Amino acid sequence: MGELGAKPSGDIKLSMPVQFLKGVGPARAEIFAKLGVVTVGDLLEYFPRDWVFAPEPKKIGQLEIGETAAIVGLVESTDFKNYHRPAIFEAMVSDETGICRIIWFNGGYLRDQLRPGQAVMAWGKVGEYKHQLQLTNPKFRVMEKEASKPAEYFSGGVYPASGGLSSMQIKKIIRPVLDNIGGLVGEFYEDEFLKKMELIKRKDAFGWIHLPADEGKLGKAKRRLKFDELFLMQLGLALRRHRHSEFASAVAMKSSEEIDRRIRKRFPFLLTEDQDKTIAEIVADMQRAIPMNRLLQGDVGSGKTVVALYATLLAVANKTQVAIMAPTEILANQHFISIERYLRNSDVKRVMITGGLTGKDRNEILKDIKAGGIDIVVGTVALLEKDIEFKKLGLVVIDEQHKFGVHQRAELRKAGTPHCLVMTATPIPRTLAMTVFGDLDVSIIKHSPPGRGAVVTRWVSPDDRAKAYEFIRERLRAGKQAYFVYPRITGIEEEGDIKAATDGWRELSKVFGEFKVELLHGRLSSEKKKEVMAEFRRGKIKALVATVVIEVGVDIPNATIMVIEGADRFGLAQLHQLRGRIGRGTDKSFCFLFADKETENEVAKSRLEMMERSNDGFEIAEHDLKLRGPGELFSTRQHGLPDLKIANIIDDYDLLVMARRCAFELVTQDALLTGPTHKNIRQALITKFGDSLGLADVA
Ligand code: ADP
Ligand code: MG
Question: Whose C-alpha lies nearest to ligand 1, atom 19?
Fold first, then answer.
C-alpha cells in the first residue's frame, strides 16, 4: 500500500484508540464505539458490507451502444410501471451532455430509494430502446451530495454507515491504517503452509478487503480472513479442550468382560451396532483419568438412554456415584422410570431428587448420598444445589444439555470434574457440533433399533383432504389409530389454538362418525388428560385430536397415522419432533402435512418438501439451520466464543473443516503457543478471547 503515497505514520498500533487517528475526535470516537470499533484493530475488522467496482464515469453524450460504462447524473423523473409484466421502475437521468433512460425489472423496491432531484451513479451495459440510450438493470449508488467526486468515491468498500459517520468518511479514516498495514498485521503461518492452503498473506488480506483492486483480489482477501477467523475460533476450542484434558482428576474406570456381560444382561435385547460403537467410545474415555467430555447425539428412540445406562452401570461397578440430570421434572421422571425398568431386582441404589422434595425426606436422602449409600441420583438442576454432596461422583449424565447452557455445565464441573456424558435428541447440525459444541467429543447414533416400520410423509393440499380422510378411514377400520395435530400459533397454548383444535375435533367427529374421536389440550384437567391418554393407549379412542401438547413423551406403537393441520405454521424441528410420535411400531406409518400447496411462503414450502424427502433428523436439522440462518441458533457470545465478523459457518463449511483440522493439529504441537512462529497467533487469540484461555500469563 506504500505506493499510494500517504505519509507514513509509524506510531499507529493495533491497540491504539481510533480517537487518535486523523479525522477522528472524541465525538466520532463515540460513534465508532457504538459500531463496536474502539481500537485500530477493531477498525481493521470493520469490514465493508459491499464492494463496488465501477468504471470511471463517462458523460452521457459520449456513451456508445454495447459498452459497459458508468454515468453520473441527476434523476429528472421516475415512474413505476406496475401494469407492465414484469413491472418496471424507470428513471430518467441527465447530465449536461444528454439524458439516459434507466430501467429495472421488478424494481418496485426502488420507489423509496430513487427520487427526482437526487444525484446517482449507475453502471452497466449501454443499450438502446426506441432510439434512446438505455441502461437495463444497472448497478447504482445514490450519491451523498450532488457534486463531482473523485473516482475513488465510486469504487472499493461500502461501509455500514451510522449516524453521522458516512461510508466515505470511514474510508478516509482507515486509509492511513491501510498504508501502514505491513507493520500492523503480523503473519500467522509459514509461506509453505500458505501455498499449500492457497491462502494469501494476512496483511494483503486486510489491505485488499478494504481496498480491493478487483473482484479476484477481494475474493482471495475474504477467503484468507474467513480462514483466520475460523482458525482462531477453533484454536480457542482446541485449547479449552486441551486444558480440560490436563485435569487428570477423574476416576479411571476399570472394565472387564465380566462387567460388560453383567451390564448387558440388564437389557432385554441385543445392542445395535451404533450403540456398541458409542459404548466403546465412552468406555475408552472413562478408562482414562482425564475427565470424559462427550456429546451423545441420536434421534428420539435411537437408544441413547440404554447407552447412558451402560456408562452409569460401569461407574457404579467402579464404586462411584452417578448423577443424571434432565432439563425438566417430567423428563427426569421418565429417566427414572426407564432406569427402574432395567434395574428391577438389582441392588443398585437409586433415588430421584426433585424441587418438590423437602424437609426430613430430603435430609435423609442427602445424608445417604453423602455417605455413599446411593449409587444413582436422578433429578433436574435441583441436583446442583449446594447442599447436595456426593461421596464419590464418578459420572455425570446430562440430558439435553443445550437447554442448560454452558454456565451450568461449568457448575457441575466444580463437583470434582467427574466424567461427563451429554445426551441430546435434538440433532445438532455438523456445523454446530464443530463450533458451539466444538470442545466436546461427539458420538452419534445414526440408526435406530431394528423392527421399526417406515414413515411415509406426504404434503396434502386442501383439494386432497377428502382423499386423505378416506385413506385414514381404511387404516382405522384395520384397527390402527391416528393423531390429528393443530398448530400452536403463539409460543404458549392460547385460546385460539384450543378453539382451532376444538373446531377440528367437532368436524372430525362427524367425518369419522363410526369411531371414537377425542380431544386433548393443555387446559383440560389433569384427570381428564390422563383418562384420554389411557383410553388412547388401550385403543378405545381411535383418533386423538390435539394441540401440540402431545409433542413429548407419548409412545403408542399402534398409532401409525399423524395428520398435522396448518403444517406450514410449524418449524422444521417441531415437525420432525411431532412425526417422531409415529413409526414406533413395526408397521408402516403415514404422516400427512395439511397445507396449501399454492403458498407464497418459500421457507414454509422448503420445510414441507424437506419433511417429505427425509426422515433423517440430522439432515433435517442441517436444512433448518440453512433456512433460519446461523444467527438464530448460533449465538457465539452465549457460548463464550468470539463473534464471527466475516465467516459464516454454513456457507464456509469447507473452510471451517480445514481451520479446525489445522487448529487442533497446532495444539498437539505447541499447546502454549510459545513457539517463535506462533507469537502472532497467540496475540490475536488473546485479543479475541481475553484471558479466558489462560494464555495471557505465559510469557
Ligand atoms: P432414546 O433415549 O434415544 O430416546 P431409548 O434408549 O429410550 O432411546 O430407546 C428407545 C426404545 O427402543 C426403548 O423402548 C428401548 O427399550 C428400545 N431399544 C433401545 N435399544 C434397543 C435395541 N438395541 N434393540 C431393541 N430395542 C431397543
Ligand atoms: Mg429416551
Answer: 303
CB-based contact 279:307 (threshold 8 Å): yes
| Cell numbers given for 601 | 411462503
Tally of CA atoms within 13 A in the half-sphere of 139 that contains its CB: 14
Ligand nearest the Cα of residue 331 is: 2
* DSSP type of residue 39: B
Q: Which of these, 44, 27, 47, lies nearest to 164 by C-alpha position?
A: 27
Query: What pTM was computed for the model?
Result: 0.70
Beta carbons within 8 Å of 372's beta carbon, 6+ residues apart = 321, 391, 392
Counting from 1 in the atom list of ligand 1, the atom nearest the Cα of 270 is: 23
Cα separation, 368 vs 362, whole angstroms: 10
| pLDDT tens digit sequence for 305-356 | 999 999 999 999 999 999 999 877 777 887 898 899 899 999 999 999 877 7
Choose the residue to mutate in 267, 302, 304, 306 for probing ligand 1, maximizing ligand atoms within 8 Å of C-beta: 306
Do 611 and 579 contact (CB within 8 A), yes or no?
yes
**Domains of the chain with bracketed CATH:** 54-154 (2.40.50.140), 257-287+303-424 (3.40.50.300), 455-621 (3.40.50.300)
Q: How far apart are CA 168 and CA 155, in angstroms?
A: 11
First to last CA, the chain: 33
Ligand 1 pocket check for 269: Cβ under 6 Å: yes
Pocket test for ligand 1, best of 297, 305, 445, 448 (most atoms within 8 A of CB): 305
Ligand 1 close to Cβ of residue 449 (< 6 A): yes
Q: How confident is the model at residue 94 (pLDDT cuts 50, 70, 90)?
A: very high
Q: Mapping DSSP to helix (H, G, I), strand (E, B) and coil, where does residue 412 land?
A: helix
d(CA 290, CA 106): 61
Residue 304 near ligand 1, beta carbon < 6 Å: yes
Please say whether the beta carbons of 126 and 110 come within 8 A: no
SS3 447: coil
Residue 239's alpha-carbon distances to 23, 236, 686, in angstroms, are 40, 5, 12
**CA 680, CA 129: separation in Å to the nearest integer?**
58
